[in-house]
């Protein structure tokens, strides 16, 4: 399924909505949104993954890039990830470095 | 008991040849998903099988063809028998055996993301995702073989 990544920035929170299949042919789109988000100070990187159907290692490498680019103090939230996407994050230990949650509410 | 190899429904579903470029990953995924459906794999096994083939195909395209400025095809062949689904992935890029790749160990996988090494994750997911993974160099071709057991009734 075609991949899309849409960035929305609210103060120091960068929220990216991901959908479709994230593989090596689409990882560049995700990386470009991360680069845009990292242009300003970010405290929380919120990745809305409800409609993300698939993630390959090329997508995981963008998460490494995000952490290295935004610094250790930026927390990465993985929100509403589907079972198999979560399975891959767990298998590779990425679930230990991100905050896995069902919902994320931006405080007013 | 003798194992028989049966063709899956349509004969053109058994082979796929695509150019070795990243834009072919979508077509490869569709072909692999159709094979997992024909084999009756459950959701988890089907996803992991698709991931395994995708990761190795990506390595072939990126490291075998694009980075070496070589052009070539990627071919996939599916064999289904009573017990297993086998997918054979071939290319004519430089010799590369994923089984010799330095894979992340538990210590690496426990590292926080900011300290992670970039390489090895794809091959790790590929080998972990199937019941058997084999590599052969045949003439000028790399042959990667993925085998997954079919569910028993």
Describe the protein's topology.
The complex is a heterodimer of chains A (108) and B (153).
Chain A: E1 4-10, E2 13-22, H1 27-37, E3 44-55, H2 57-70, E4 75-79, H3 83-91, E5 99-101
Parallel strand pairs in A: 2-3, 3-4, 4-5
Antiparallel strand pairs in A: 1-2
Helix pairs in contact in A: 1-2
Chain B: E1 5-6, E2 15-19, H1 25-38, H2 43-66, E3 73-81, E4 84-91, H3 106-110, H4 121-128, E5 132-138, E6 141-149
Antiparallel strand pairs in B: 1-3, 2-3, 3-4, 4-6, 5-6
Helix pairs in contact in B: 1-2, 2-4
Low-confidence stretches of chain A: none
Number of structurally distinct domains of chain A? 1
Tell me what the CATH architecture of chain A is: 2-Layer Sandwich
* Straight-line N-to-C gap of chain B: 17 Å
What number is the mean pLDDT of chain B? 91
Q: Give the helix tally of chain A.
A: 3
**What is the radius of gyration of chain A computed over CA atoms, rounded to a whole number of angstroms?**
12 Å
């Amino acid at each position: 399924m075609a991949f899309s990544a849409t960035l929305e920035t609210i103060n120091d929170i960068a929220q990216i909505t991901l959908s479709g299949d994230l593989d090596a042919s689409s990882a560049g789109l995700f990386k470009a949104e991360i680069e845009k988000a990292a242009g300003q100070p970010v405290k929380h990187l919120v990745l809305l993954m409800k409609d993300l159907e698939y993630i390959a290692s090329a997508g995981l490498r963008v998460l490494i890039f995000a952490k290295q680019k935004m610094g250790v103090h930026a927390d990465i939230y993985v929100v509403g990830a589907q079972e198999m996407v979560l399975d891959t994050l767990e298998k590779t230990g990425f679930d230990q470095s991100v905050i896995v949650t069902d919902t994320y509410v931006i405080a007013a | 008991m003798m194992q028989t190899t049966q063709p899956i429904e349509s004969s053109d579903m058994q082979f796929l040849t695509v150019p070795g470029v990243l834009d072919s990953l979508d077509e490869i995924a569709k072909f692999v998903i159709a094979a997992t459906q024909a084999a009756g794999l459950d959701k988890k096994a089907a996803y992991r099988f698709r991931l395994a083939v995708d990761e190795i195909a990506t390595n072939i395209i990126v490291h075998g063809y694009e980075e070496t400025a070589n052009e070539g095809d990627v071919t996939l062949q599916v064999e289904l028998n009573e017990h297993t689904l086998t997918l054979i992935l071939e290319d004519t890029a430089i010799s590369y055996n994923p089984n010799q790749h330095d894979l992340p160990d538990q210590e690496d996988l426990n590292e926080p993301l900011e300290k992670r090494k970039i390489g090895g994750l794809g091959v790790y997911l590929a080998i972990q995702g199937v019941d058997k993974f084999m590599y052969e160099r045949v003439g000028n071709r790399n042959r990667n073989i993925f085998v997954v057991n079919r569910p028993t009734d």
